[in-house]
Amino acid sequence: METLMENAAFQTFAACTAILVIKNFLSGTYTAITRVRSKKFVNPEDARVFAGGADPAERETDAVARALRIQRNDGENLPAFFAIGLVYVLVGASPFGAAVYLWTFTGARILHTLAYTAGLQPWRALCFFVSVACLLGMSVQVLMSVLG
């Protein structure tokens, strides 16, 4: 019996998962850097420490709010990928099918983040819909496998 790490589909899933986790951490770092550069903090303790005791800002700057929306979007999409991607692989995804769905999703999410950061429409929406199509495709494949 082959172990998971000998399964090419699982190897693809593992690589894509690691890349997306790193991307997620980098998005959080981008938010923090953007906030520090603005020198405006909504939390009083942050304003006290990082803005020289300035009063807390009433709201996030536009740049920080955009960075937070990138993180929120990942928070809505990455857990679904981690769950359905793993189930898809475990029900017997072919190495080719896994490569197509998993790498396409990963690339689309990276490009989505870049497009969101730069404010590029319709590219951001296109990348979002490509990633959703991958999630739906894997979901249908799982359903066909377990119900068929």
Describe the overall structure:
It is a single chain. The chain is an all-alpha fold and 148 residues long. It is built from five helices and no strands. It has helices at 8-38, 44-50, 62-90, 95-118, 123-147. The longest helix has 31 residues, at 8-38. The radius of gyration is 19 Å and the shape is elongated. It starts with 7 loop residues before the first helix and ends with a helix. The model has no long low-confidence stretch (mean pLDDT 94).
Give a quick precis of the structure.
The protein has 148 residues and is mostly helical. The protein has helices at residues 8-38, 44-50, 62-90, 95-118, 123-147.
Keywords:
148 residues; mainly alpha; 5 helices; elongated
Q: How many β-strands, per DSSP?
A: 0
Classify the secondary structure makeup into a structural class: mainly alpha
Q: What's the overall geometry?
A: elongated
Low-pLDDT ranges: none
Proportion of β residues? under 5%
> What proportion of the residues is helical, as a percent range?
over 70%
Biggest sheet statistics: none
- Rounded mean pLDDT is 94
User: Whole-Å distance between the termini?
Assistant: 24 Å
Radius of gyration: 19 Å
> How are helices and strands ordered from N to C?
HHHHH
SS summary, helix count: 5
